Amino acid sequence: xxxxxxxxxxxxxxxxxxxxxxxxxxxxxxxxxxxxxxxxxxxxxxxxxxxxxxxxxxxxxxxxxxxxxxxxxxxxxxxx
Length: 80
Description:
Radius of gyration: 17 Å
Number of strands: 3
Order of helices and strands: EEEH
Oligomer: single chain
Number of helices: 1
Largest sheet: 3 strands, antiparallel
């Protein structure tokens, strides 16, 4: 049996401030236009990211199988 591809072990994982239950995925940004300036007509945009649970639940994103999963790089320890 293969080990499941856990988002917490993926290089695209963005941890949250609690227990990483609400971590986000850097592969799926959401741009939110939240303020329209009446003086110059510009809008402010906030870039946020989808939760990992959303990305894993959508087959058009990472899906249940973790199609876009990339293991985090961990440096090897030198053998003595």
